[in-house]
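Renewal narrative, Specific Aim 1. Our central claim is that a sequence can be written position by position from structural information alone. The example that follows is taken directly from our test logs and has not been curated for this report. It begins with the structure tokens describing the chain, in the order in which they were read.
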């Protein structure tokens, strides 16, 4: 009788392991579908990605620095010509 009980427990444990594996597969599938839907939604809203934003911000900072340097040069030239 103990062999029968052990077999029932083994079968039950195998069933639970299979159920856990199936649940994990379903979870992964739902997660993938959610991410795809969220990406489609964000692309439809024309939202800028972080990398693109950082790149443009860096370009603007460099342009601002260059404008300040050019302004200083113009002011120096104007001062030199004004004397």
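The sequence written for that structure reads:
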């Amino acid at each position: 009788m103990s062999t029968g009980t052990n077999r029932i427990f083994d079968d039950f444990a195998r069933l639970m392991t299979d159920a856990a594996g199936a649940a994990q597969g379903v979870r992964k599938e739902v997660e993938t579908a959610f991410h795809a839907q969220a990406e489609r939604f964000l692309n439809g809203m024309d939202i800028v990605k972080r990398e693109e934003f950082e790149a443009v911000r860096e370009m603007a900072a460099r342009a601002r620095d260059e404008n300040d340097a050019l302004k200083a040069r113009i002011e120096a030239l104007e001062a030199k010509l004004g004397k």
